[in-house]
Structures are given as C-alpha cells and as structure tokens.
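P.,

For your records, the input lines for the assembly:
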Amino acid sequence: MTIFDKLESKVQSYALSFPVTFHKASGCYLYDEAGNEYLDFLAGCGSLNYGHNHPVLKQALLEYIGNDGIAHGLDMHTRAKGVFMQNFQDAILAPRDMDYRLQFPGPTGTNAVEAALKIARKVTGRTNIISFTNGFHGATLGAVAATGNSYHRDAAAVPLTNVTRMPFCGYYGQDADTLNMMDKLLSDASSGIDRPAAVIVETVQGEGGLNVAAIAWLKGLEKICRKHNILLIVDEIQTGCGRTGTFFSFEPSGIQPDIITLSKSLSGYGLPMALVLLKPALDQWKPGQHNGTFRGNNHAFVTAATALDHYWRDDRFSREIEKKAGILSHRLKKISDQAGVTQLRPKGRGMIQGLQCKNGAIAKKITGRAFARKLIMETSGNDDQVLKCLCPLTITEAELNEGLDRLATSVFEVLDDNLRKVS
Amino acid sequence: MTIFDKLESKVQSYALSFPVTFHKASGCYLYDEAGNEYLDFLAGCGSLNYGHNHPVLKQALLEYIGNDGIAHGLDMHTRAKGVFMQNFQDAILAPRDMDYRLQFPGPTGTNAVEAALKIARKVTGRTNIISFTNGFHGATLGAVAATGNSYHRDAAAVPLTNVTRMPFCGYYGQDADTLNMMDKLLSDASSGIDRPAAVIVETVQGEGGLNVAAIAWLKGLEKICRKHNILLIVDEIQTGCGRTGTFFSFEPSGIQPDIITLSKSLSGYGLPMALVLLKPALDQWKPGQHNGTFRGNNHAFVTAATALDHYWRDDRFSREIEKKAGILSHRLKKISDQAGVTQLRPKGRGMIQGLQCKNGAIAKKITGRAFARKLIMETSGNDDQVLKCLCPLTITEAELNEGLDRLATSVFEVLDDNLRKVS
Amino acid sequence: MTIFDKLESKVQSYALSFPVTFHKASGCYLYDEAGNEYLDFLAGCGSLNYGHNHPVLKQALLEYIGNDGIAHGLDMHTRAKGVFMQNFQDAILAPRDMDYRLQFPGPTGTNAVEAALKIARKVTGRTNIISFTNGFHGATLGAVAATGNSYHRDAAAVPLTNVTRMPFCGYYGQDADTLNMMDKLLSDASSGIDRPAAVIVETVQGEGGLNVAAIAWLKGLEKICRKHNILLIVDEIQTGCGRTGTFFSFEPSGIQPDIITLSKSLSGYGLPMALVLLKPALDQWKPGQHNGTFRGNNHAFVTAATALDHYWRDDRFSREIEKKAGILSHRLKKISDQAGVTQLRPKGRGMIQGLQCKNGAIAKKITGRAFARKLIMETSGNDDQVLKCLCPLTITEAELNEGLDRLATSVFEVLDDNLRKVS
Amino acid sequence: MTIFDKLESKVQSYALSFPVTFHKASGCYLYDEAGNEYLDFLAGCGSLNYGHNHPVLKQALLEYIGNDGIAHGLDMHTRAKGVFMQNFQDAILAPRDMDYRLQFPGPTGTNAVEAALKIARKVTGRTNIISFTNGFHGATLGAVAATGNSYHRDAAAVPLTNVTRMPFCGYYGQDADTLNMMDKLLSDASSGIDRPAAVIVETVQGEGGLNVAAIAWLKGLEKICRKHNILLIVDEIQTGCGRTGTFFSFEPSGIQPDIITLSKSLSGYGLPMALVLLKPALDQWKPGQHNGTFRGNNHAFVTAATALDHYWRDDRFSREIEKKAGILSHRLKKISDQAGVTQLRPKGRGMIQGLQCKNGAIAKKITGRAFARKLIMETSGNDDQVLKCLCPLTITEAELNEGLDRLATSVFEVLDDNLRKVS
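Structure tokens returned:
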C-alpha cells in the first residue's frame, strides 16, 4: 500500500488513469520511478506548451534561485516581475497594438476568472454573466457557476447563481444561428434574461470537447456585446500562449476582448501563474481589493519572461506550430476516414485537436490502450467521449508522428474489438 | 515612468506601501535593486515562516530542478509528492495521532477554503456556513462570502450568500459569552439561523486584527459543533506551520477539527501550495470533482518536504519559536506600557503579535516611518489600526530585537508628533 | 386634487390609463361616478370571466352574508369550503378523470405560484425551475424570478435565482424547434442547465403578448418532462376557468400536469381566491408549512361554488365560449386583413385574443382612443404592443360586436393618423 | 370520509386542531354545522379585531353588494377605495401627524412585506435586510427569508438569501443589550454584516411567541437606523388595527417608521386586504412595478372604511381595549401565580397576551382541553409553547372572563395531570 493509497483524498483523478509514480520529465517525455519513458500528449492539460523542463527556462530559473532572487513577493515590485511585464509588453502587447493593464490574481486559472467576473460586475453594476454550453472556467464558486459541467457544478453543493447559459457556436447544429438567438433574448425586455455584465467565452472549448468557435461567430459575438453594451471576456487559459498557433487564440478573428484571462502555460515551466488583462478603462480596482498570497510567484515570472523572450519575439514559433497543427489535422483526418466519421470525428484547431468517439466508454478504452503503449493522453467532452491530443508545442515532427502512431494503433485495436463483439 | 506605473493594474497594494523594486532576499532580509537591505517583518504575510530562500530548501530545490525532476504533475503521483506526503505523515500527523486524508486543491489559500466549504456542504447536504466577525478566508466567491471585510466583500459585486456570521471570541467584550449566543441561536428552531454544514474559524484572526480565540473558547466551539452535528473547519492558512509555536495553532486547545486548511508557509519557500486535511469519513469526493491545473506544483512539494524534515522531526523548533514569542510579547508590552495601553494595546499570540493603535491613520504613519528605517511591516484590522509583527520564525534574537528597536522608534516618533500637534 | 393624487403610491397603473373613478359594475359594464357606462374588455385582467356582479353569485353571496355565514376561516373546515370542494370535484375533476389534491394558498395568483414552486423543489430536492421567455407568474420574489418581464424583475432589486429560462413555443420563429433545444440542454451533462425540479408554463402567455403554445408543443413539453423526470406545472391563473373555452386551457392537448395553479376568475365574483392542484403523490406538505391568513376567504368559496354549479355542470358554457371566440377570431382577422398583417397581427386563442401592433406607442394610442369611446382594454407584450381583448365570457354577441366596433374604429383612426403623418 | 379528507392537501393545519366544520359566526362566536357555539380566542390569527361579521360592517357590505358596487377594481380608482383612503387619512394619519403614501399590494400580509422589502432595496440600492430572531413575516420567498421559523424556511427548499438575522429585544436575556451588538456589527467594516437596505421588525412577535419589544428598545432601534442610514420597516400586520391598544402598536414609542405594513384586521371583516405605508420620499415605484390582480378588493375597502369610521374617529376604542387588556393581564398573572411562573409565564402586551408553558407538548394539551370546552385558541413560539389569547377586541368583559375561565380550568387540568404522573 503506497503513501498515496493511504493518505491521498479520493478527489485525485489523473492518478487513476496513469497508475505509476512519475519522477522526471524532459521535453515531451515523462519518466516513472522505474525509468519507463512516456510520450506526453497531455502536457499538464495545456500547461506545458514548451514541454517539460525546457533547458533555456531551466537555466534561467537555476540562476535566479542560485543568486537568491526573491521567490515570494506578494504583489510588490520585483525585478523579475518588471522583466516579465516588459517582455509581455514588447513581445505580446505592442506588436499586436493591444492596450491592456496587467492584473496578477492568485496564480491559478480559476482565480483569474474570479477576478475577471468581479471587475466586470463591479464596473457595470450588473450581476448576471453569460457563459456558454460546455464551457469550463474553473472550480471555485464564482468560476464554477460559469462552468457547464454538472459533475463540477454539483460539487459546489449550493445553487450556482448570477450566470445565464447561452448555446455555443454550433450547439444546435450547423444550421441554427445561436448568435441570433442570443441577440433576440438580449433585445427582448421580457425574455427573462437579465442584461449581463459580461460574456465569458473560450475560442476552443478544451474541457467541453474541443468545440471550436468559428471566426465569424466570434466576430458576431463581439458585435452583440457592443450592441448591448456588454463586456467581452475571452478565457485564454487553455488556448492561450500559442496553443492554436497565435499567442492569443482569438487573434485570427480580429476581436478586441475587454478582458482576457491567461494561466496554464504562461510561466512556461508549469509553475503556478495567472494573469488578467484589462482594457485600461476597466481597471477600476481599489488597491488590494482582489488579493491573495501567491500573486508574486517570482520563479514563474522568471521562466515566463524567458519563454516570451525565447519564443515570441517573432512569428517563427507560430509558423512552426501551424505546421505541426497541419500534420495533426492530416493524421487525425486519416484515422477518422479509416474508421468512418460516425465512429471518430476530428475536432478542434491548432494544437488542440482530437477525435470524438461514439461514447465515453470507447474513448476510455482507447486512452487505456494508449497508456499501455506509453502514450499519455486524456479525454474531454460532456461524456468524456473526445480523445484530446494536447502535446507540447515544441514536440518534434517525429515525436508527434510517433505519438499519433501509438494513438492510431490503440484506436483500431479498440474499434476492431468492438466490431468483433458486435459480429 | 516605470513598467509598473505603465502597465500594472491599480489592484496592487503592497507596492504602494513599499515603493521600491526588490530583487534579492535571504533569511529575514529583502534587498532592492539599489542594494538596500530591509528587515522583513511581513514575511510574505506569513508565507515565509522559514525566511527567504532558506539554504537547505534552496539546495534541495536546485538539485531537483537540475536533475529534471518533474515540475508540473497535475494530480498525478510523483516521487516528490510521495516524499512530501510521507514526511507530513511522519513528522506532523503520526506524532499528533491525527488521522486525515490529504487533498491538494489549487495552490492558494482561497482554493483550499473553497474545497473545504464544498465538501462540508456536500457531505452534510446543508448549504449554510458559519464564519466569524473579522474573519478572513480568501477572495474567490465562495471564500469571500465567509470573509468579514466589506472592502473585499464589496468587490464581489454580487450578494454573498450561504454564510451566517457569528461573533468571534471577545467580540462583544470580555463579559459577553459569544458561544452561549451561538448555542442559543442554533438551539432555537425559530432563530432564523439555518443549521450550517460547518463552522470555519481562525484561532488568531490575522487580517482581522490579531484577535485571539481563547483556548476555552475553541474547546467550547468544538463542543457546540458536536452538539449540533456541525463540521468544524479550522483555517490554519496564516497560523499554521509553526506561526504560533506548534505546527497547528489549535494544538494547545486539544480540539480535533474535521477539516483543516493549510497554505502560505507550507512550501517553506514561498512557492504556491495548499492542502486540505479531511477526516477520512468526510473524504467523499468523486475523482476530479474539485480540480485545477496547479495542484501538482512539485517544486513546492520538494521544499515543503525538506522543511518538514528539517524543522518538524522534533520539538526543538517549537521551543525556539516560543522563546522568540516571549521576547516579542515582552517588548510589545514594554512599548505599550510606555505609550499607555489606550494608545497601543498588545494583541496576538506566538509569533503573530502586534500593537493596536487608536486608529488606522496612526498605524499607517508608524509603518511609513518604519519603512523609512528599512523595516517592512504592515497593518491589519477593520480600520487597519493594528501593527502586525509577522517576521520569519527563523529570525535570530538579535534581528528580532533590531526590528523591534526600529518599530519602537517609529512608534514614538509618531506618537510624539501627535502629542505635539495636540499640545 | 383628489384623495388618490394626494395619497396613493405611484405604483398604481390602471388608474393612469382610465382616469375616472368607478363606482358600480354589472355584467360587461363599468360605471363611473358620473354615471358613464364603459364596456369592459379588460375584465379585471381575466378575473371576471362571468362578468361583474353576476346576479346568481350575488344572490348567493348576499344570502350567505345575511345569514352570518363565516367570512374568515383561516384554513379551518367550513361548510362553504366543503361545498366549493365538492362542486369542484363533481363539476371539474371527476368529469375529466383528474385526481388531484386541493391546496388553498394565500388568495392571489402569485401565492399559488410560490406554493407550486416550493412543493416542486421540496419533493424533488432540486432547486432549479424552468420557465419560459415572456412568461408571467407574479410579483413576489419566488414568482417574479420565473417571470420574464424586466420591468417587474428589476423591481425586486436583488438577483433573481434558481430559475432557468427556455424559449417558448415559436420564440425563435416557426422553423426553430424550441423543444428539441430544451431536450438537448437537459440531455447534455455539460450544458450548464441544472436539472430542474419543475417546468412552469402558460398555455397562452397573457402578459407576454398572447403567445400561444401549440398543442403539439404542449404534448412535447410533457414528454420531455417525463423523460427527464421533471414536474410539469401549468399556470392556469389567467387562462383557466373557461377563458380558452374549456375549464382548463390545457384540456385540448390531453397533457396531465403534475401541478396546476388557479386564481383570478376562480371565485367568479372578482374576490381574492387561489388554488393549487397537486397530484396526490406530490402532496408532501407538513401541516401549515405554507401558510397565510386569508386562505379561508369564505365569501369567495360561496361565489366560486355557485359559479361552478351554474356554469360547469355540462358543456353548454364551453360551447358558448367557443362560439364567441369564433366571432372574435373572425373580426380580429378582418381588422388585420384590412390594416395589413404587418400592421396588425391577430394573436391568442379562445377568448384571450388580440392584435399585435408594430410597437407599443401605436397600441397605447389605440387603447386611448378606445377609452374615449368608453371601451376599456389594455395592452400586453414585451413592448406593450399587443391589444388584448379580455372581455367577460358571458358577454352577449351584440355586446361583443359593439366592443369590436369601437376597437376597429379606434384602430383605424390611429393607423390613418399615422399614415397621414407619414405621407 | 369527508370531502376534506378526500381532497384537501395535507398543508391544512388549523383544521387539525379544531376538527369540526364551522358554518356561521358572529362577534366572538363560531358555530359548527351541528350548531355548537365556540368562543373565539384566535380571531383569525388577529384578522378579526372587530369580531366576526360585525353588524355595522355587514350592513355596509350588504348595501354595497346589493347596489352593484364594483367588487373587483384592479388598481383603478373607485369610490369605495377613495372613501377608504379618505377615512384612513382623516381617522388615522392626520390625527397622528403622519405623512405617508398608501400602496395597495396583493391583499395578504406576505405581499405587503414583499412590496416593502422591494422598495427598500430599490431605493437604497442595497440588497441586505435585517430581520430578527423569532420574527414572522410571511411565506412567499422574499418574506420567508425574513422569517425565523425553520419549519417555514425549510419549505422554501432553496437557500434563503439577502437577509441577516439580529437578536430581538431580550433575546439573550434582560442583561444583554442586543442593540449595542447590532450597532457594533454595523459600525465595524469587517464584521461581515453588509449594510442593509432596511430593518424589518414587529413590536410584538406574534408567531414568535409574544415577545415584546420594549419601548426603549424600539427608540434605540430607530436611532441605529438613522445613524447608519437604514430604513425602518415596522410590520404591523398582526399588531396593527388596535391589537395593542393604539391603532399602530409602535405609537407609544414615538418612532417614525419609514415603511409600515398592514393587513389582517384592516378590512375589519376578515376580507383579504393589505396596505403598505411609505414615507413620500420612498415612493419611487414606477407604475405597475409591483402588481397583482386583487389589489382592488372593493368589498374590503367598504368594510375597512366603515370600521375606521366606526372605531377610530376618537380614542374611545383604544381606551376600551386598554381596559380589557388590563383584565387579561391581571387574570393571566393570577393563573401564572397560581401555577408558578416557571410553569406558566405571562407574555405579550395589550390584547396580544398569553402564557408560556414549559414546552409545546403541555401547551398543545391545554389548547386541546380548551377546545373540548368550546374555547378556540392556539399556540405560538419556537416550540409552540406559548398559549396565545387573541380574542376580538370587541369582546365583552363577561365573554373575556368566560374564556379565561375555560382557559384556566384547562390549564390546571393539564398541570395537575402532569403532577399526578410525576408523583
């Protein structure tokens, strides 16, 4: 009986899917205590876009720690924080002509979402928030109210209030114009939908099953927000930092969110960090009003600043991602074609793509087989029916293909098994 | 104009009190970019009980990173996590005969509180939570509802629900028995106080102004909880990890909380980490029900495990803290005696003590003068009227006395000024 | 300056539309203090289905009062209550093969809705309720949360919670299947729509603008409720007591609601009375749990029992209503045809029909002109754009035609005026 | 099996205590179908201050109905309403130098409370309301949140929000100053008590167990409200219309509530009616914002106007009530003295007095014995332990003494029984 069996709460989940004890990690690989090597198509749920323990970031971190750089800085000014902010301004905001204030909330995605919802409500004086079917925004009480998953909602064990749900792009099928519906509800004084402070949206719903918001839909959503004087929050926690090719996933749409939330891969090294970007006019916080102890995790600032410097000074990394995303699309389509699109449907965009199985049971079998082949990957979606390829963006093409080979083999093993059972 | 002036949100607060840019830190000292040395009586608001960049922890961390130890592990089993859990069992739980499950929520105090409130509500099927006047439990929506401070409550910009407030120990003066009041309300079917899932309490209210729960009061509170079948949550986020002398601040009272929240100094290095301890019967979570990306911050596990090993295998550290706490009490009393107890009243216990000024304006002046003397300290309380000495527990007696000298000088400068103005 | 000007709250509304002081009333007519006679196409917003001061009911009431029949009976058994219940059983429930328990809530529609929502939540253990766009269910806090109108919602001045809105029949146009949408949301574990205790629906949305739920839609709604194990509440407050031809408006659809709310015309004399019908298995109230002082308004029981006896022992009254409804439909269609359907669109069914104008301003002008012709009628809808003919069901054909003549003249006066302005 | 057994919901409560079918009523007497005469010490829970079917009111009502006076008037101006308002101005407001606007909500007490809470929140822009331990304000969702009784609260089956509970006068014993506690909480920015829109209070808690707010306490409460800029709502639903001697029960204290709610005995005949009095500056309603069908129950206006005219043009009725209240006090004290104050403690004031038994079981036995003696009375309090004498104010001294004789006999029968069992 391990210490985990003895002491750890039953709330643990990934450990159930991958029942080994990991020890080391590098690039796309995880290693367990016995020295086995696993290819990582999970990447800390999108927190390791630059892979595990990236050598350049690692070096910067070791130096910083070695030199007694301040580790914990509350929200005080530190050199490391200043460098991060300057790099963020130079590499990210300025080239995109974006004018935002940076708020450092508690260092997790859900804290960023809580801050975003608070300031939106505070500034507008309205309490309602619109979020979307299958959206995921976090587990603390404010964020989970905006989250669609009943598994997480039920855990709150109180009614979740002040959030109204709208259908995401394509939710009612390709022919139904979900934006028109939303506009009608917001234009109708008796619809029963209270005018919201803000809309919060993901461009690709990661946990929700790799549902993609079309570019036209995002543009239309922005237009509705402007028309009804509603703030637009884009939750880039899983899609940001290059996951879809560009630094922000909304860039191809040209929309200008009022508030943007970032976390996960922001530190680049898997260290806890979160950031809220606010249009300057919205920065109506009073000092310390949204506080927290670990807003100044300087180790994360160091690796984050280094990652920005290393990857985002030009568009080479973006182009590299797009190339790999092309490979990923191509191979997923091939698998889908071979299996039949009713069996496996490709979903997602950029480097957040996957395959939708007929149900969660099939998907679970496939990820189980994949793990037996030392490929770590997970499922998402309302029935956990979507196989999710979320590998580091720094993966080599060879590694990517190797992983997809393992996935393909696992897929057909399971589908053939099912076929055999049926026949 | 610095990058901070240009880009950072107005939500920043400590930076306003300490308008320099820090760079390095070691033990009790912070250093700004110009090389000035500051004595730290703030200690990351209690997150740096072992001081900045403790050399033993630093060495362990450098080795771990250097060896490509896994940094980000979601909630997967990792060797570093296992070592932390084993050390926590051996050094903390076993010697105290405590049987708890360990839940790792998102790595901040507020996430720990959110998890604690959720599971309490889920297990009991009740929605109400009792928290206390002047209590502070975090800034996310679930936690801030349990927080007393209107400054933080107002920021939520929605009504805060499902929490009922009770008077803390001594709130209505020493003669009023606040526990009797609470018992009466809970025993009266028409009081309008819905039977709560849990009570959440701090043994010393850090943000609330160093209000101390008497041992008899804590025992009485536990008795009320048992009588009415209510869970008892002790929030040890600021008081835990030795701040009051013992590892848990409730130890002298002998109570047995159902749920305990820990964070702040848990990692020992200022790294984000949080822990919820649950009586085994309460561990009714389903896998992943309370999730989050950074629950497996392995760097924090490494330093946390090392800190437990280094400081908590025997009671030497506790005795050391008690000795310093004695010095602190003695000197604060002397200052109070000299100024008159109506001017400055000593408050707190262990190494979380301070002086209550007549109002926040005076306290603010004093911390300003202290900063000019390169002493970093803050205020707390409902009017920010309490000077809070929250230095690292590893401070030497000489450093402690030096800090208190600077404080005393600052205090009397301000009080004398005030006196002169009056006369 | 009248006593009304001096003392009455600005909350009064009908008095603004009809600025005279009424004194007497009989059948379809209201009389003001000066003796002017007004034809009543408002009928107490549907509370006077049998007209004002119906002679048979009046006689019964005078006798009851004259004989010192008990007027106020709390919820005690009284002979008058017993007679009402027996008549309700014999004339309404038994012939329709309906098995329900009768709950007498406070004597207003909103109290009936509050009771219905409470028992639905209590029995199912769920908190969410589904109500529909443009629905109206009352002004107390529980009922107004289910109401769509933002004018009434805003008056609550707190966030309205525990209700989710769905699109009513035809809300997104005739091609959009709103039931499919609802079914998808309820079938999707990540939709963010918490499984509700109940759905509350009107078969014709009176305040919402005479929107009619198609029979197939009602059947489909019932099917969804059964599939997802959700209670079905039909709010018959405005549509019940024969307004649409049958006693309950849902009868033509053949659905079997779990809970039915009645009020308005139930007493038959305009006296305050309300009734909740519960499937026996749902009658899980404890004694007095939903209480109120005026649940035993025996004067209302007397007139209600008399009305049931007089009108509902056979189907003659229903056939009579249908005949008049036919006249109403025919004439409204003629007006619409003459004006053009884009100018005036007929809406509603049975004796709750009207004409939708292009906007509320036009409709208001028309009702103003009608009042000048001594025709009392009001508007409804999200912009108050729908002219609502809600005359007593006992109106003669001659009176009905007379009223419609006055309406038609008023309509074309206003439309012609508008035309003149445009040209 | 009666029709009640077959059809009525289990929510009925009084019918359980008085298992007969009533038929007629006059003055202080109820008559069942068999012709038995019962002395009424319940008076429709305070709705029949002038007794059943008062001949003067009855005559006015018969005439009104006979002459086809308008029965149902929505919120339109009617002569009957005007007369009521004029009489209310002349007999009640003017002599007391009170300047208020009259709002007619739905005709029940709970609707009046809902209206009062809404306008208080709307005008102040705050959501919180303070209500008191053991307070009762109604059963609809907004009102029940302000109600203390868990039996009624639980029936809501959703968390009740936006209300904070404070201890009523004397709640913690005669030595504890509950107003000081309230003031401290409201003055402390970190108490966790959000500044409320309003305080709602009863001067005597009828359902709560005849707890009396001392005059000094009411004055102090008003002072706190003014100090913190909080509206003061006095709920006079049970205590108004002379129950304590003066028309409003707060008159002896000299306070000036911002809002007053009235219902129950307002119509004088037991007919549904409710009234909200608003200081003119608070009348910020928009037309129809708080609506309802039966706001214009003209039969109630007629009897209410007559009652005002008959009883409240001078102070004779008040003096008469005071005299009877003196008899009631005297005799209850005698019973208490004889039984021992630990067995039976007198409570209440004016004509809302009673005896507190050791527990609800004893009280229930006593009211059972009383009913066997044809005395109708009920219990109240958090354990239903308080015998409540709530007879019509028009009772003769002989009838009063007769009822108290029956009560006394019932009391000692039960106490002696208990004694015998013990010995």
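Two observations worth noting. The two ends of chain B are 42 Å apart (CA to CA). The interface with chain D takes residues 127-128, 131-135, 147-151, 153, 159-165, 167, 171-172, 176, 180-181, 184-185, 188-195, 208-209, 381-383 of chain B (CB under 8 Å).

Regards
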